[in-house]
Design goal:
195 residues; 7-stranded mixed β-sheet; 25% helix; globular
Length: 195
Amino acid sequence: MSDKPVPPCSVLLLAGGRGQRLGGRDKGLVEWQGRPLIAWLHDRVRPITDDLIISCNRNEERYAAWADQLVRDDSPDFAGPLAGIRAGLAVARHERVLVLPCDAPRVDDALISALLDASGDRPVMVRQGKFWEPLFCVLPRALLPVLDAGWQAGERSPQRILRQLDLAVVDCAEGDPRLANLNTPELLGDTPPKD
């Protein structure tokens, strides 16, 4: 992490998906390099927060070991990451919330620092080449009413809502391995992260 102090933040790890590409298995609990994916993210972010939130819709008893708080979607049908983001922002104890997907164990301290440094009072999202990565972001907790309004209007894409805001951007190169989602059996055969 960078040497300069950053204001405290909550961290939200999104692990509430259906796991379709993994045959319905709970993605965060799938092992990579001998450890559950969620454990890699936990170890990466634990030093920067006293409010680690995991959005999960099953296996709460297992996820509890890696979280200060657990949240569930407010709909029973695996409604997608926006549901988990809304639930996390609703309980976050700090004004800023770092959001990361549970299946990206290669995220490193430099990327986390870049996101936190860029955010200030604005939302910040990663852009990889021409493509936005809405699940790698920092959101002010104050955005919850905006996300709720979008949800109530039928929007389910965090990217579409966030791109309408005054976003700060962290640019990453196309193919940046730190952003790789290990969400298929083939990808889970990869190598561990390097610092």
